[in-house]
Amino acid sequence: MKLLEELQQALDADRVSDNETILEQHSKDESYHTPHLPEAVVFPESAREVSEVVKLANKYTTTVVPFGVGSSLEGNVIPYKSSIVVDFSLMNKVLEVREKDFLVRVQPGVTRSQLDKELKKYGLFFSVDPGADATLGGMAATNASGTTAVKYGIMRDQVRDLEVVLADGSIIHTGSLAAKSSSGYDLNGIFVGSEGTLGCFTELTLKVYGIPEHIMAARASFTSVEDAVEAVIAILQAGVPIARVELADAQSIKQMNHFSDTDYKEVPTLFLEFHGNEAGLKQDVEFTREIVFDRNCQDIEFETDTAGRNRLWEARHNAAYAYIHGHPGKKQMVTDVCVPISELAGAVKDARKAVEKSGLAGGIVGHVGDGNYHILLMIDVNDPKDIEKANVVNEQIVDYALTRGGTCTGEHGVGVGKRKYQEKEHGPALAVMRKIKQALDPDGVLNPDKVI
Amino acid sequence: MKLLEELQQALDADRVSDNETILEQHSKDESYHTPHLPEAVVFPESAREVSEVVKLANKYTTTVVPFGVGSSLEGNVIPYKSSIVVDFSLMNKVLEVREKDFLVRVQPGVTRSQLDKELKKYGLFFSVDPGADATLGGMAATNASGTTAVKYGIMRDQVRDLEVVLADGSIIHTGSLAAKSSSGYDLNGIFVGSEGTLGCFTELTLKVYGIPEHIMAARASFTSVEDAVEAVIAILQAGVPIARVELADAQSIKQMNHFSDTDYKEVPTLFLEFHGNEAGLKQDVEFTREIVFDRNCQDIEFETDTAGRNRLWEARHNAAYAYIHGHPGKKQMVTDVCVPISELAGAVKDARKAVEKSGLAGGIVGHVGDGNYHILLMIDVNDPKDIEKANVVNEQIVDYALTRGGTCTGEHGVGVGKRKYQEKEHGPALAVMRKIKQALDPDGVLNPDKVI
């Protein structure tokens, strides 16, 4: 096979593979979408090598799919066409911490936890936490967010500059080190969330934050999802600078209790976190207490020490695993939409009805400050009826979101799973997106048939 | 003239003008760049009418330049080619305030002060304040920012959705009402800052904020610009959530004193503002006091009441007018760059040297929390030597910024004034921008020869 030989010449021979196990590892992500084997997997060590790989893909009219740790949830990295998968695990260095500029420069294969460990030495942290220990390159590719977006913003907000290998193998920088710019078109924004369809990221410069002086977490139990959502709206309206506010429905709390050995009341629950100085936090917390009790909160418990706080967030973060653990042999279908927050209570109620109607086990968890929520459905992937039931739920919640000004995905990205909703969501704007793709990747070399 | 007739048919006759005075009013912005008359000025009342105008521009192979109040500073709206100027002053309605969603939907001709007046009724405010009472459409077009960006972000961060008339007259929406999305490419980002070269904005959905419970302002005097900048870095590193932090050099304070009848010490000065709850603010303020005195602050004065605070910000906001007032007969050339904050002290020092060398009167003011600063130079626009001197200063500070990872404009946009630096700043990424322009406006109908 001539392609493989040329790849081996461009990289070292041992960083190019068509070994069955390696191909199989790069044929899937964490979603329920059907795996597909690539032609080859390469492990580049530099932008130059990535550029060589893309040029060879052009030469051999094959395609390129960038790959982090494969934690995507919509088939975003599955190589459905003849593809070379570019695994970034060897490009995993934190290159520079610019303390005074609150910036860090990393290679795309650096994982979130690896970065945070490094930043801790400087009293800094990286704010985006999607749950999975994803790579920063992957997080930028899907525009990940997670629990802290309500205060610190999403992945797109953190990207100051990307080094990108384009479809023709040329290398560009999309931004600068300046905190803001009105110079030229916003390439940072368009490349973040492009899921490898416009280029391969080979370096990222990201915004980081000082670790807050004080952190306090809380868990508030409610009788209904409506009350919980109304409480969050009131907290935001009061200007309380909340750093995290997560919703779990009764079913999800039940799974958490079972998995994390907690004994939380099995009712709709908010998990909250506050960042600030000691005095300010105290006042925020008192104010929040008043607000939640005004909205029929049953009780609220604060965690002031690090251990209690970690226990609380571990339980929340493990919600997805709790479901998997509680349903052996089944696979999880996670779907994700985002609605204007005023529509969230109605959306969650409607989603619960859809889950009940499907007969599948499933729960709802959400980043309620953003109006973003997930449904975790447990399905037997070998049973077409289960898949069909899950698809019906998916259609229903996406439809509910889109007819209320929402979006079909708040943070998981489009991949293959949400492509069918693009026309409905974007209307004639989809043609604009297609023109941009066509202009930057006319031959469709980059992650084909994804997003648009 | 057939075009004029067809425009008059598409709009009402009295909303299409080729009156000399009207043309002259739309031939310029607030910059020193040479004015140029358009062919006609139209005053549309709807997206449909804007679409008709764009279609006629295509038919008559002329071009379209969108116009707010003409407060741009780099010739962004000057119609240098045969053009129809689209004046949005009749599209000036606040269409909807979605309190619970922290969103407002406005027409592009709404001005910043008009919006804030409306939002006050709901206990909300719009965060971006570029100084001038610009239109929201114009602010989105140049990706404006201003004093509050350090806490609330820039214009691009506030845009949730745009209704845009494209080069072929078709109408799209670039976003949704959801707080975040990973669906499709980020069109909000690419259209914000495109300065009318990719489309005309006919409606904007913007993020708004609850008015903070407490606000406190302060003025801190330093011996040197370095000390002032180091103090700001230390405040940011300490995680104090500062809402505004502005730097004015000694020369600018002198002009302010003269114009605003203040008696501020004529030394490098920081203007600060803190937003938060009462207890938190108190602690922030104490902490800030410690930090600034550690960095050789001469003295710091706090303004706790609204009147004192307004006086302070009025003085700062009037800095540009103070210079104009102090130099009758001259025009102001304002230039704007942004550097990584660690490079700011050096940049300001170098800029001061360049101003001294030029022999022109001029001062430096800056949004120091973002590393963004402006030079205000007083020039005689009829004296080619003055223009040349100002250009030399401009080249010098842009060059300093670009060689240190900065950008040639932090918030004023490219217009015609900063086009010559695009190649140097963006390198091969400029070709990507050009491909996007080519894909979306192949015939160059929209604000020609601007940005790229």
From TrEMBL, chains A, B:
Family: Belongs to the FAD-binding oxidoreductase/transferase type 4 family.
GO molecular function annotation: D-lactate dehydrogenase (cytochrome) activity; D-lactate dehydrogenase (NAD+) activity; FAD binding
InterPro entries xref list: FAD-bd_oxidored_4_C (IPR004113), FAD-bd_PCMH (IPR016166), FAD-bd_PCMH-like_sf (IPR036318), FAD-bd_PCMH_sub2 (IPR016169), FAD-linked_Oxase-like_C (IPR016164), Oxid_FAD_bind_N (IPR006094), Vanillyl_alc_oxidase_C-sub2 (IPR016171)
PROSITE patterns named among the record's database cross-references: FAD_PCMH (PS51387)
Domain FAD-binding PCMH-type, residue spans: 34-211
Organism ancestry: Bacteria, Bacillati, Bacillota, Bacilli, Bacillales
Protein name according to UniProt: D-lactate dehydrogenase (cytochrome)
Keywords per UniProt: FAD, Flavoprotein, Oxidoreductase, Transit peptide
Cofactor requirements of the protein: FAD
Matching SUPFAM superfamilies: FAD-binding/transporter-associated domain-like, FAD-linked oxidases, C-terminal domain
Pfam families from the UniProt entry: FAD-oxidase_C, FAD_binding_4
EC number(s) given by UniProt: 1.1.2.4
Gene Ontology annotations of biological process type: lactate catabolic process
Source species: Lentibacillus populi
